[in-house]
Design brief:
Helix content is 24%, strand content 32%. By secondary structure, it is of the alpha/beta class. Helix 2 packs parallel to helix 3. The longest helix is centred in the first third of the chain and has 17 residues. It is globular. The relative contact order is 0.21.
Amino acid sequence: MKNKILLILPCLALLWGCYPGGADYVDQLDIVLSNYSQDNDFSKMKTFAMSDSIVKVTDDQLLTQFIKQSNAALITSRIRQNMAAYGWTEVDESQSPDVVILNAAMETTYISYYYSYWGWYGYGGGWYYPYYPPYYTTYTTGSLLVQMLDVKNLGPEDQGTMVWTGLINGLMSGSSASFSTRVNKSLDQLFAQSAYLKH
């Protein structure tokens, strides 16, 4: 664990050095991480299945929620493009795919309120406290998790083995205007640094 921390610290310093005055835009804070099982032979895996919906991870475990479908469509479409470019074939889950790709998003929306009062003032012989409407801002932070589950080699009670994981930290943050560009850039980077998936 200590070695991993020592490895991460120079990476963070390098990232910070890219923006010495601080990041100007939220997309400059996106971080793409990936990891895989070194015991797995991806060359033997050819087919995958994936849902069009993306689960939203929340505290409510009794109710399954999903991210906005338009955002999910952008994400799943780019994953499919990258998988196809790497030689994978998408099949229905009923056709016994080699792997299933599971996508999940962690989103948190923050709301900040600000009330502006200028103090008491006199009017017509009386004192009144003026009312000003509150100002508020909202912003969303969150990450996208992409996982590849080996469902071909199952034991009697096996749920599958996780053979590849990708995390895009910060992707679900920021404005919707730049979301499509950031999805493409981040997912392309995720696959670029996961060349072992290529056939």
